[in-house]
Amino acid sequence: MVETQGEFDFAAEQTTWSVGEFTRQIRDILETTFATLRVRGQIGNFTRAQSGHIYMTLVDDEDGGKSRISSSQLKVVMWKGQAARLRFEPETGMKVVVTGKVTVYEARGEYQVVADRLEPEGVGELQLAFEQLKRKLEAEGLFDSDRKMELPFFPARIGLVTSRTGAAVRDFLETLDVRNPRARVRLVPVRVQGEGSAAEVARALELLQGSAAGVDVIVLTRGGGSLEDLWAFNEEVVARAIAESAIPIVSAIGHEVDYTIADFVADYRAATPTAAASAVTPDLREIVQRMDGLRRRLAMGLRSWSQRGEAELAQKMSTRYMLNPQLVIEERFEHLDRGLGELESLTRGRLDQLENTLALLGSRLETLNPYGVLKRGYSVVLDTDGKTVTGADELSEGDLLRLRLERGEAKVRVEDAGQQN
């Protein structure tokens, strides 16, 4: 016999129930008896509705209710208010522990658990959420080394995103003051843990973008703590803000052994806030020491170069040319006269050769000149078109001809044509 707060006994009553009445009685008994319960099982048929509500079944067997052997099943619903607060994404096949209360869905006469809390079994909720987001962002390439920017060597202005108070900001500023007191810091104070802190961090990173902020590098830091304390830096909104930054970001979250999603996405991960200060700015004392060393090396090099130059100059000054510079000028004139003489000789011989060749060619050309015979009293007969007449048969009586003589031309007319010798 199951007793309710009203000590209702089904066996004692012989009433005939309607389906609705019986269902409501069962609901009252279950909701009263199991006001709060925890149930362990494996998720089967997981669904996240567009409304934000979560629906699933819990099963006992290892394959999520897919085997042919029947297993106990329990319907579970989580309303969107509680579902929105989940830090991990439930999946079919995942082993979980559900905390909630039993109710009856009267329309179907089915009982189900309305979950207030959902926890992964065997691993903490935060650790599972961390691993899920890490796998997701890594698959998108947000951890790839080729997308990371180099840190500026000597930043003039540094953006600092952290809590206004605490060891992190103190350690960073003290270290920076020792290494480079001239560096300017723009602090954007944020909450570094608790609800809403991740959104504040993301907004601070966005605020430091662009020329208006004027920073060369951004440091995102806080002190150590538990996984829960550091959770703001494991939120996706912070990871996205880091990935979208156009300015290099140094992440220094927690202690040396602590790793957050922000560390994987950032352009540079520093183990501590102190290490972050060392990473973003060189030590001026070390630079001064290096410059002193370079100055000494430069002075020694110049001294050695000067000594070698003096030795070479002394050697050259001892030569005959330096002792009597006029020798250089005289030798150059001698070389010039010799060269001019050789050039003149070569030019004269070449001109004579060209004159002889030209005379020979002129003689040959004169021999081949068809009008050369005119000098011997001959003439060339041309018709009115200027064509040479070679036979009487080409002429007719009355034709007008031109006679080309050695000196000038004459015009004649044919009186008797057609006779040939």
Describe the protein's architecture and organization.
The chain is built from eleven helices and 13 strands. It has helices at residues 19-33, 80-83, 125-140, 167-179, 197-207, 236-243, 261-265, 273-280, 284-317, 320-323, 326-367, and strands at residues 37-48, 54-59, 73-78, 95-105, 110-120, 157-162, 184-189, 217-222, 249-253, 268-269, 380-382, 400-404, 409-413. A five-stranded mixed beta barrel has the order 1-2-3-5-4. A five-stranded parallel beta sheet has the order 7-6-8-9-10, with helices on both faces. The chain has a three-stranded antiparallel beta sheet with strand order 11-12-13, with no helix packed on it. Helix 4 packs parallel to helix 8 (273-280) and helix 5 runs parallel beside helix 6.
Secondary structure layout:
Layout: H1 19-33, E1 37-48, E2 54-59, E3 73-78, H2 80-83, E4 95-105, E5 110-120, H3 125-140, E6 157-162, H4 167-179, E7 184-189, H5 197-207, E8 217-222, H6 236-243, E9 249-253, H7 261-265, E10 268-269, H8 273-280, H9 284-317, H10 320-323, H11 326-367, E11 380-382, E12 400-404, E13 409-413
Helix pairs in contact: 4-8, 5-6
CATH topology grouping of the domain at 130-146 and 155-282: Rossmann fold
Structural class: alpha/beta
Q: Cα distance, first to last residue?
A: 167 Å
What CATH first level of the domain at 130-146 and 155-282 would be assigned? Answer: Alpha Beta
Instruction: Please tally the β strands and state the result.
Output: 13
Helix content: 25-40%
Radius of gyration: 55 Å
Q: What CATH architecture label of the domain at 130-146 and 155-282 applies? A: 3-Layer(aba) Sandwich
- Order of H and E elements: HEEEHEEHEHEHEHEHEHHHHEEE
Any idea what the shape is? Answer: elongated
| Arithmetic mean pLDDT | 81
The unreliable regions are 1-7
Q: What proportion of the residues form beta strands (DSSP E)?
A: 15-25%
